[in-house]
Amino acid sequence: MEKNSILTIRQWAPEDRPCEKIQQHGAQILSDAELLAVLIGSGTKGRSAVEVARELLASFGGSLNNVGKARYDELKKVGGIGFTTASRIAAAVEIGKRRQEEDALIENQLITATRMYNFMLPKMKDLDHEEAHVILMNQGFGLIRSFCLAKGGINEVTVDVRVIMREAVLANATVIALAHNHPSGQCSPSLEDQRLTRGISSACQTMRMHFADHIIVCDGRYYSFRENGKL
Q1: Can you give the pTM of this predicted structure?
Q2: Minimum mean pLDDT among 54-68, 88-102, 173-187: which range?
């Protein structure tokens, strides 16, 4: 078949088109490329949306996870991915993250390190720099609010314990947790992480608050100071 005679998705048999597949069987049967093709919408001259999606996947190691981590400008470098398509992909990734956050709060109690990790992972998994987030809770470990306390570099972030305590008092929180990420994927705490944990623990004792945990978030795993007997 000559290049200029390549069929577009609209020319495919209905049962082979991604949108029709979703309508008849559900999105779960689509391949990664077909799911992306739905977001891409239309291809370019000589290439269908599925072929553009395959090129997009190939550009990021064949991994949807890597596509999700990609910056907006990186997505647009792929042929056939323009302003609107890159925006759709970014929006779809964000919807997935927010759903994960809601799932983690179904019981509204962040009483274990695993629940805290599941709550924080969508916020931190795609970051290429360190961030420190504070989780403020009531006595029953119900979430009052969480917020980003500080942003840092590739392997460090500076945390002011006084700001944590001030925000806890203003929110009437009695339980505090800290979470920060290690973009390197190495979850072991540094000496600075240990020093920070001791500082927050001491401040919480002074203020008669409970320091629930300090979680180091990595993609797929975590380190809990409490689970490791450091609190």
Answers
A1: 0.66
A2: 88-102
